[in-house]
Amino acid sequence: MSANHRHPALLATDPELASFVAAEESLQAETLRLIPSENYVSAAVLEASGTVLQNKYSEGYPGRRYYEGQQNIDRVEALAVERAKGLFGVDHANVQPYSGSPANLAVYLAFAKPGDTVMGMALPMGGHLTHGWGVSATGSWFRGVQYGVRPEDGRIDYDAVRALALAERPKIIFCGGTALPRTIDFAAFASIAEEAGSVLVADVAHIAGLIAGGAHPSPVGHVDVVSTTTHKTLRGPRGAMLMCREEHAKAIDKAVFPGLQGGPHNQTTAGIAVALHEAAQPAFTAYAHAVVANAKALAAALLERGFDLVSGGTDNHLILMDLTSRGVAGKVAAKALDRAGIVVNYNTVPFDPRKPFDPSGIRIGTPSLTSRGLTAEHMPVVADWISRAVDAAAKGDEPALAAVRREVADLMAAFPAPGLPL
């Protein structure tokens, strides 16, 4: 479908911008997207996110708004909330946060004061900026202390986490991160947080879809608050949710509004509601398990081709690769892979001797390719493409990268992506 038919009003009003959108549609269709935080939303989510709900201001919460004319908006938000509560089995859900970082800021506002000690996984070890890392506002306004992983196996040392928590007594402990290829032991974190007298927050932005589909243990029942984005493995629009026990509901709601933001983005709330409905279907359970099966198969194929994987593999959707032994830096490899039609991001690996903007590793994941219908039988082919492209990057062999790109485009054509024009 051409941009002319897909976005006729946009094309007529702003052909320059319409051309950019059409180019992005083609790029997403033709390339193998391996960034673990990316996915394809369904056509239904895409439509819901672009409705006239965009036109309405709705400060407050359903039944308690500061603007009139909320008859339909209240129903939309209440539907999203009920679906979140049902899907994740939580007492309370807030679907208004604009994205993951603002959602985490709301957690700080609800439970801590500036200068308080907070604890999270160090960014270079796989944590997130908003878990108290120094360059983030959370590391500037609060006193951040960090835990990491063991150098010998790339896994969290829960005894070390406990010792740090008992020494520092943080107000908040975050578990979860952005480059963790292994299952998070929420029960172990809960025990540590209880002993240290800390509020425990699970940031499951990356694995929310896996949790919803039963392919990763749930933090619910172990933690005080669950923070998540609604995109990534959950296959919703770019938004976020905070879920918690009933005792924390008022504090969380007050922190989101009026604490940090004004009116919610109602069109995004609608997209979240659709995504949560889709995630409650049996097909999504199959999808979540397929994401993990594909990641395990891809990790095995990469190991067979001599790649070094942090922690030796994966339990979830994500693989972190250390390219030191391949003689090519992560940034160089990521850019070469991009030219080969394979979209990844360069990434720090634990104990990386290189700088964050020029690290040793790349981070890949299987949510997007699984959404297109690729299965474990395709993963050796994907691993072969990655191996060929990384070797070509080391040699500066552009024809080899072009050859991989043609092969990628051929396979992608056979597996159309949800929500994209054919």
Automatic annotation (TrEMBL):
<dbReference type="GO" id="GO:0005829">
    <property type="term" value="C:cytosol"/>
</dbReference>
<keyword id="KW-0963">Cytoplasm</keyword>
<keyword id="KW-0489">Methyltransferase</keyword>
<dbReference type="GO" id="GO:0030170">
    <property type="term" value="F:pyridoxal phosphate binding"/>
</dbReference>
<dbReference type="GO" id="GO:0035999">
    <property type="term" value="P:tetrahydrofolate interconversion"/>
</dbReference>
<dbReference type="InterPro" id="IPR039429">
    <property type="entry name" value="SHMT-like_dom"/>
</dbReference>
<dbReference type="InterPro" id="IPR001085">
    <property type="entry name" value="Ser_HO-MeTrfase"/>
</dbReference>
<dbReference type="InterPro" id="IPR019798">
    <property type="entry name" value="Ser_HO-MeTrfase_PLP_BS"/>
</dbReference>
<comment type="pathway">
    <text>One-carbon metabolism; tetrahydrofolate interconversion.</text>
</comment>
<dbReference type="InterPro" id="IPR015422">
    <property type="entry name" value="PyrdxlP-dep_Trfase_small"/>
</dbReference>
<comment type="subunit">
    <text>Homodimer.</text>
</comment>
<keyword id="KW-0808">Transferase</keyword>
<comment type="function">
    <text>Catalyzes the reversible interconversion of serine and glycine with tetrahydrofolate (THF) serving as the one-carbon carrier. This reaction serves as the major source of one-carbon groups required for the biosynthesis of purines, thymidylate, methionine, and other important biomolecules. Also exhibits THF-independent aldolase activity toward beta-hydroxyamino acids, producing glycine and aldehydes, via a retro-aldol mechanism. Thus, is able to catalyze the cleavage of L-allo-threonine.</text>
</comment>
<protein>
    <recommendedName>
        <fullName>Serine hydroxymethyltransferase</fullName>
        <ecNumber>2.1.2.1</ecNumber>
    </recommendedName>
</protein>
<comment type="pathway">
    <text>Amino-acid biosynthesis; glycine biosynthesis; glycine from L-serine: step 1/1.</text>
</comment>
<keyword id="KW-0554">One-carbon metabolism</keyword>
<dbReference type="GO" id="GO:0042803">
    <property type="term" value="F:protein homodimerization activity"/>
</dbReference>
<dbReference type="Pfam" id="PF00464">
    <property type="entry name" value="SHMT"/>
</dbReference>
<feature type="modified residue" description="N6-(pyridoxal phosphate)lysine">
    <location>
        <position position="232"/>
    </location>
</feature>
<feature type="site" description="Plays an important role in substrate specificity">
    <location>
        <position position="231"/>
    </location>
</feature>
<dbReference type="GO" id="GO:0032259">
    <property type="term" value="P:methylation"/>
</dbReference>
<dbReference type="GO" id="GO:0004372">
    <property type="term" value="F:glycine hydroxymethyltransferase activity"/>
</dbReference>
<dbReference type="InterPro" id="IPR049943">
    <property type="entry name" value="Ser_HO-MeTrfase-like"/>
</dbReference>
<dbReference type="GO" id="GO:0019264">
    <property type="term" value="P:glycine biosynthetic process from serine"/>
</dbReference>
<dbReference type="InterPro" id="IPR015424">
    <property type="entry name" value="PyrdxlP-dep_Trfase"/>
</dbReference>
<feature type="binding site">
    <location>
        <position position="246"/>
    </location>
    <ligand>
        <name>(6S)-5,6,7,8-tetrahydrofolate</name>
    </ligand>
</feature>
<comment type="similarity">
    <text>Belongs to the SHMT family.</text>
</comment>
<dbReference type="GO" id="GO:0008168">
    <property type="term" value="F:methyltransferase activity"/>
</dbReference>
<feature type="binding site">
    <location>
        <begin position="127"/>
        <end position="129"/>
    </location>
    <ligand>
        <name>(6S)-5,6,7,8-tetrahydrofolate</name>
    </ligand>
</feature>
<keyword id="KW-0663">Pyridoxal phosphate</keyword>
<keyword id="KW-0028">Amino-acid biosynthesis</keyword>
<dbReference type="InterPro" id="IPR015421">
    <property type="entry name" value="PyrdxlP-dep_Trfase_major"/>
</dbReference>
<feature type="binding site">
    <location>
        <position position="123"/>
    </location>
    <ligand>
        <name>(6S)-5,6,7,8-tetrahydrofolate</name>
    </ligand>
</feature>
